[in-house]
């Protein structure tokens, strides 16, 4: 049996001539947080909708808990908690009444399920406030409460921090992390906010124009990020010559007349600095730099950055 | 199914559409009272008032009213974006729809009873004669059942317009026309046309108004509509289309 909780094989979704998701192969490991990262319209939500059976794939296959999704929906879906797109609830009912509907439909008779779920997201139990009077942040919290209410093994959360204030974001982040670490839940989370994925995910899948460009653990991705020494000097041309001749390294890039980048970070920086000074080159700055995940994202998507 | 029905009733809490239904039942009676002002030499009593209310109920208000309420109850799952939460439980749309249709059937009985209650109140206000406990009981049963039978005849419209958000408004218009045409059904057609066939099933003006109902035909007509409605539930929905935001085209420059 596969070690993956979610596995897709060439998952594709086409709307007419438009391809939303193309031959997607994602692998979500048990007990880990998988961050699906991509710009708006990259195909994250369509992918999640296909994983939950809300949208039928044009081709390809989804395997969840080692079972083919199609034909096993009734066995698989009760083990999943989800939040897809915006929170959808009945505006004429309170938060508790809304959760009561879904608890009843799930066969959860004990009110403690509702109470615990609301407590987890810091929403009051049996409050009189109607859903229509909720703020966007409260709506999002209620949607998270609905996703976790039945204690599912797998959580599929589409942009769960949308609409939350900074404190709320931090709370939800901690809460998701705890669900994974303490309860061993597997979590698939999507976001267009790179910093969130880098703070939360164990594994990252980068999706762009419906295609999965990269799928690796966050650690591997970070290791892939380029490290370099940035010199800001009075004569970058002369400095480059010294590195090439004295230190036998051609792994350099001349940005302009004053800025030089050295990609071989194993060279002795102190000795290089001394050589520069001896050659009459003034050094304004010398830093050890590292590309961010955003730089990496830009590099592999071949475009602009992400929030 | 019992659970779905139970939750459907929770969803109706504080829901304005029920009050619209009650208001429309009041309108049925008020519309009838309005016609009493006509100087046509008619002598009004309880029985005549009841018959006139039933006529307006069948041909003017109820088909449109029950289609509106049922349509709203179904459509809200799209507009409130709750369908995704239900489908991932998982509960199929068909099962949910079946639950909603059962609740709508119960509401049709309720609205029939409400309309009867308004008729009795109107009778007391107007001071018409001929009201008795026996006639009240008969009237209550007749109007309540009439609501239910009319609902059954509207099932195909309700189900057919339930597949897309807001398309139920088209259904409301169709239901109104469908009910209104009933006003012109005569003779044998009265027992065949589903809306008027519902009247046959409650014995409306049987004998006294010279109406001879073919009960068998009436029953077949109403049940046929109900069966068509149920059959429509199994039609596969159209393949989904991705929602595309309309982009505003730049306006053409006019003149020089």
From TrEMBL, chain A:
PANTHER family: ABC TRANSPORTER, ATP-BINDING PROTEIN
Record-stated family: Belongs to the ABC transporter superfamily.
One Pfam family of this chain: ABC_tran
Organism of origin: Zhenpiania hominis
ABC transporter domain mapped to chain residues: 6-234
Protein name: ABC transporter ATP-binding protein
Molecular functions per Gene Ontology: ATP binding; ATP hydrolysis activity
UniProt keyword terms in alphabetical order: ATP-binding, Nucleotide-binding, Transport
């Amino acid at each position: 049996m596969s070690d993956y909780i979610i596995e897709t094989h060439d998952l594709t979704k086409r709307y007419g001539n438009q391809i939303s998701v193309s031959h997607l192969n994602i692998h979500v490991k048990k007990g880990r947080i998988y961050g699906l990262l991509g710009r708006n319209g990259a195909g994250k939500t369509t992918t999640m909708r296909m994983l939950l059976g809300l949208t039928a794939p044009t081709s390809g296959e989804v395997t969840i808990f080692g079972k083919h999704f199609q034909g096993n929906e009734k066995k698989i879906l009760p083990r999943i908690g989800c939040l897809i797109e915006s929170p959808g609830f009945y505006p004429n009912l309170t938060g508790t009444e809304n959760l009561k509907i879904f608890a009843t439909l799930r066969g959860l008779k004990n009110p403690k399920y509702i109470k615990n779920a609301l407590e987890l997201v810091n929403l009051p139990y049996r409050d009189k406030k109607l859903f229509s009077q909720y703020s966007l942040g409260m709506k999002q919290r209620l949607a998270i409460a609905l996703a976790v209410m039945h204690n599912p093994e797998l959580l599929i959360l589409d942009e769960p921090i949308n609409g939350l204030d900074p404190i709320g974001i931090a709370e939800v982040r901690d809460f998701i992390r705890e669900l994974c670490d303490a309860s061993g839940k597997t979590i698939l989370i999507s976001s267009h906010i790179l910093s969130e994925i880098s703070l939360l995910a164990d594994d990252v899948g980068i999706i762009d124009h419906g295609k999965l460009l990269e799928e690796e653990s966050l650690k591997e991705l970070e290791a892939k990020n380029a490290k370099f020494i940035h010199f800001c000097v009075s004569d970058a041309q002369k400095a480059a010559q010294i590195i090439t001749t004295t230190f036998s390294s051609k792994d350099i890039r001349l940005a302009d007349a004053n800025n030089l980048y050295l990609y071989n970070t194993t060279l002795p920086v102190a000795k290089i600095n001394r050589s520069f000074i001896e050659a009459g080159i003034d050094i304004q700055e010398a830093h050890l730099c590292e590309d961010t995940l955003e730089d990496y994202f830009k590099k592999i998507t071949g475009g602009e950055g992400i929030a | 199914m019992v659970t779905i029905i139970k939750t459907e009733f929770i969803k109706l809490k504080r829901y304005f559409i029920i009050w619209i239904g009650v208001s429309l039942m009041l309108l049925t009676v008020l519309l009838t009272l309005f016609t009493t002002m006509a100087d046509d030499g008619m002598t009004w009593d309880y029985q005549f008032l009841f018959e006139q209310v039933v006529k307006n109920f069948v041909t003017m208000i109820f088909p449109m009213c029950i289609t509106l309420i049922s349509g709203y109850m179904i459509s809200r799952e799209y507009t409130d974006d709750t369908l995704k939460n239900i489908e991932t439980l998982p509960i199929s749309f068909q099962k949910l729809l079946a639950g909603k249709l059962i609740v709508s059937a119960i509401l049709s009985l309720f609205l029939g009873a409400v309309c009867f209650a308004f008729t009795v109140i109107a009778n007391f206000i107007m001071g018409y004669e001929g009201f008795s406990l026996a006639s009240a009981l008969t009237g209550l049963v007749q109007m309540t059942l009439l609501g239910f039978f009319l609902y059954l005849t509207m099932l195909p419209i309700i189900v057919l317009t339930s597949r897309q958000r807001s398309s139920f408004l088209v259904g409301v218009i169709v239901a109104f026309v469908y009910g209104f045409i009933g006003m012109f059904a005569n003779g044998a057609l009265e027992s065949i046309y589903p809306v008027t066939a519902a009247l046959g099933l409650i014995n409306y003006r049987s004998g006294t108004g010279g109406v001879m109902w073919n009960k068998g035909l009436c029953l077949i007509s109403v049940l046929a509509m109900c069966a068509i409605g149920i059959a429509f539930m199994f039609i596969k929905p159209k393949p989904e289309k991705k929602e595309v935001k309309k982009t505003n085209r730049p306006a053409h420059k006019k003149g020089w």
